[in-house]
Amino acid sequence: MKYQIYKAETRGRANHGWLITHHSYSFANYYQEDRIHFGALRVLNDDVIAAGTGFGRHPHENMEIITLPQKGALRHEDSMGNGSVIYPNDIQVMSAGTGIFHAEMNASETEACEIFQIWIFPNKQNVAPRYEQKSINDWRKDNQLYQILSPNQNEIGVWIHQDAWMYQGEYSQKTHETYSVHKENQGVMLFVIEGKVEFDGIMLNRRDAIEITDAEQIVFDVEKDSKILLIEVPLIF
After folding, report:
1. pLDDT beyond 90 at 162
2. Whole-prediction pTM value?
3. What is the DSSP letter of 79?
4. In 3D, which of 64, 9, 67, 77 has the Cα closest to residue 37?
């Protein structure tokens, strides 16, 4: 097993007034040659969007885009005719495929909206664009990891065009976790949303991350009052 730890303060940061963002990987004006992507995982942005503002209409193509609201409400509109508002404990996925325009705006005029946006390279190019939104509450479990995304349409959660899985966990008590990697040549990124995680004797704190390769199983301890996100992706794609 090999791993690399990235402390929260090493992420890229930008304050645009209407948007305060932290980038786990190179994005916009933040560039680190060794932090462009982790396998098929291209983007993990931690965004705080001011009230009444947001990302105006803009294009994407050939990317799987996942949004996880953490606070407030985000309004989505796209060129396929979809229009909706997503809230904490929702998950939204958009397969950009041959091309799509969309806008993401804070749905509140008085409160900030906080989201994670994740981009994953697809394993199929130029697919028909698609949109999906589900409530995580429908399959949420306490004090254990639960699946929120996979490559399979008939599994729990949303699905994308890539051999990738995402799990989330919220913990009200200290918990020992064992995660089994689904396939060979896959890597796992563990991101601490809130709280603390102990991995191989090292304590990870809020917004710290670890990238793990060459492992069939990953073992770690989650401290009480913690929330984590785990993303498994192909290293070669």
Report:
1. yes
2. 0.97
3. T
4. 64
- Domain of residue 154, CATH code: 2.60.120.10
Q: Is residue 5 part of a domain?
A: no
Task: Encode burial over 51-71: b for 16+ CB neighbours within 10 A, e otherwise.
Answer: eebbbeeeebebbbbbbbbbe
* Residue 156 belongs to domain spanning: 144-234
C-alpha 80/C-alpha 189 separation (Å) is: 32
Report the number of distinct structural domains present in the chain: 2
pLDDT, tens digit, 9 for 90 and up, residues 27-71: 999 999 999 999 999 999 999 999 999 999 999 999 999 999 999
Helices within the chain (DSSP H only): none
Q: Is 10 helix (H, G, I), strand (E, B) or coil?
A: helix
Q: 3-state DSSP call for residue 138?
A: helix
Annotated binding-site ranges: 58, 60, 102, 104
Q: Is the dihedral of CA 65, 191, 37, 139 positive or negative?
A: negative
Return binding residues for Fe cation: 58, 60, 102, 104
Report the sign of the C-alpha dihedral through residues 22, 25, 27, 30, in that order: positive
Which CA distances in Å does 236 have to 19, 36, 43, 185, 229? 33, 14, 16, 7, 22
Identify whether the C-beta of residue 156 lies closer than 8 Å to the C-beta of residue 147. yes
Q: Are 217 and 181 in contact (CB under 8 A)?
A: yes
Per-residue tokens: 155: 């599994």
What is the maximum alpha-carbon separation in the chain? 49
